[in-house]
Amino acid sequence: MGGVSDSNFDLAVGVGGDALDSGLQKAYELHRDAFRGSVTPDPIEGTAYTFAWDFLDAPALVLTPPDEDLWNEMIKADGVTALPDSGVLQFVAQRLQADCKVADTALPRVTGKVTVALRLTLDGGGGITAVPLGVWLENLPDGPTSIIVKNVVVPTLLTQGTTLLKGLKIPAQNLFGQTVALNVVRVDVIPTHLVLASTVTTTAGQSPAARPEPVDWPTDKQVFTLISKGLLTTLLTASVKHYENTQLAKGDKTIQYLASARWDATFRQAVNLTVGADPTTASAGVDIDWHAELDLVPLSPDGSGGCALSKAGHES
Predict the structure, then answer these.
(1) Domain closes at, from 117, 137, 164
(2) Domain that holds residue 269
(3) What DSSP line would sit under 88-143, residue for residue?
(4) Given a cut of 50, is residue 215 above it in pLDDT?
(5) Residue-wise pLDDT tens digits, 128-160
(6) Which stretch of DSSP H or E encloses residue 85?
(7) Same domain, 150 and 294
(8) Measured between alpha carbons, how far is 241 from 176 in angstroms, rounded to an integer?
(9) Is the pTM of this model over 0.70?
């Protein structure tokens, strides 16, 4: 895909359309209340409006912009006339139940398919904003109510939607005692995948080096992760440090009237950890303290006697 290499990153995650829809379905089943709600914006020309909605089925994402015919039929957000060149997807609800109250008067309930065109943009602070561009409604109320819906209700909800979906960020993760902050620097919406690419900072202040510039996203997989060599080195180093001074083995074995052995080993540290050209391989100098003893016992029925045959060990 052209243009992928013009933004460096430490970590990129791509999720295919099927995986996204499966995730939305699961979220819908587990968090049903999150898919219904209401809002009362500031009065419009002195008139109070209340909007309520309920997704009667799990919504889905279409990772392409609406076609020209659908776009022309959409009710546009204020100031929007044309589709942007990139970052546009469709949020589709097969059955959305919508209610609107104007002052104390309830408008007829509308239930039907709704498609929202969204553009994903970056806010410059590592967050993502989903900007509603337009809405297509399968069913519109008849008569004067239709005018209110087209000219007041939908534009107001589109404006509210921008506020609700502003500055979305990936939560910081704690990995091996370090807080890792992900700052999204690129959002790609391609026909098969939604891709988020991030730079990374850690509480240790480490700035991973060698950010790769891939020629193309590996779209043959439903979900993929790309990680820079520098970040991989940082995380592996933190992982290894997490296990410093960990006992690897300890035990003893006795063969009655013959011999006994005792041993223990402790991992101290790894130094000069290096990720190879093949990122699935890495090497490091490993320091392990170990001790072992072997006693040879004379063949005596009462088990008396015995002498140490050997003792050996290593300490850092």
Answers:
(1) 164
(2) 243-316
(3) EEEEEEEEEEEEEEETTEEPPPEEEEEEEEEEEEE-SSS-EEEEEEEEEES---ST
(4) no
(5) 888 889 999 887 777 666 777 777 677 777 766
(6) none
(7) no
(8) 8
(9) no
